[in-house]
Amino acid sequence: MKQPLTLAKRRLLSAAILLGGVGIDQLTKLLAVLFLKGRPSLPLWQGVLHLTYVENQGAAFGILSEQRWVFMVFSTVAIVALAAYLFFGKEISPLSAVALSMIVSGGVGNMIDRLFRSATDALGNVYYFVVDFIDFTLIDFAVFNGADSFVCVGAGLMILSLFLEMKQEMQKAKAEKTAQEEASQTEEDE
Predict the structure, then answer these.
(1) Catalytic residue among 25, 113, 135, 148
(2) Count of structural domains within the chain
(3) What's the domain range around 92?
């Protein structure tokens, strides 16, 4: 495992991933609104991957659709906490920095939608939504977007990073134990 990044390099890397991720997410959502809204699903690979415009009123993958303020508060707290840790926290590995940056980027991308995308239903009720458009039809999965993907991939990378750090700590402990045993054996031999 590589050594932790300096704080300045971590901030630069994180800012680049955050800005890039949010930019990609918002651009792809804009394209989905322009080219998919009001149109039938567009198969990229028939029966496997389609582009389907959906206005998701819930959290990731449509959960908590009636609890907007619950996940708005939770999301805001999580985004701020992770960003603060990322930009001001202790040293972390480069992989952890990338993972956390992706998670925060996805959270910010969807938060922008939750704050600024709204519509009115037939009864005159205003609702807020996130634009989803990636439709993995092979397994009948929920329609999702780039921000959801960043959060999921970031979470996977974070698990991998934690696993690699635990493995490194175990190897270090084993090496220290071996060194102590060798030192004890040398003392006994003298």
Answers:
(1) 148
(2) 1
(3) 7-184
